[in-house]
Write a structure and sequence with these properties.
Helix content is 58%, strand content 0%. It has helices at 24-32, 36-54, 67-110, 123-126. α2 (36-54) crosses α3.
């Protein structure tokens, strides 16, 4: 194999057959069958989960806490929900908004110097969040 060709190994460290390489055609077909609402909700849930980790809200809390990273994730989540809310219906949007508000409040509590109301992560999209 040349250096430009990726090699794939089995868990035992042996080279895998070429069929072990990702089947990008199959993955594209799979994505094509997923409704947009499901993609938007999945991305939102992933952003929420990542933000919770960066806010230190998981079992290993302080080990992964990074408020700068959390700010970015919460802001991106708020932007996604603001842009996608009319597309995903209130059935899907309401619990995501509740989760976003919880993350915004957790961010405010975790900050040594809290942002002014309306200046916290995502508050550009949601308006001020008060504890």
């Amino acid at each position: 194999m040349s250096d430009a060709t990726p090699s794939y190994e089995t868990p035992t460290g042996e080279p895998a057959e070429s069929s072990a390489a990702p089947d990008f055609d199959a993955m594209t077909r799979d994505i094509a069958e997923v409704p947009a609402v499901e993609v938007i909700v999945t991305v939102a849930v992933n952003l929420m989960s990542a933000a919770a980790v960066k806010l230190g809200l998981t079992e290993d809390g302080e080990e992964h806490k990074d408020l700068d990273e959390a700010r970015k994730l919460v802001h991106a989540l708020a932007g996604l929900l603001d842009a996608g809310a009319t597309e995903i219906s209130s059935f899907h949007a309401a619990p995501l908004r509740d989760g976003l508000k919880s993350l915004q409040l957790a961010f405010r509590e975790a900050s040594l110097v809290p942002d002014e109301p309306g200046q916290g992560p995502g508050e550009k999209y949601t308006g001020p969040v008060y504890g």
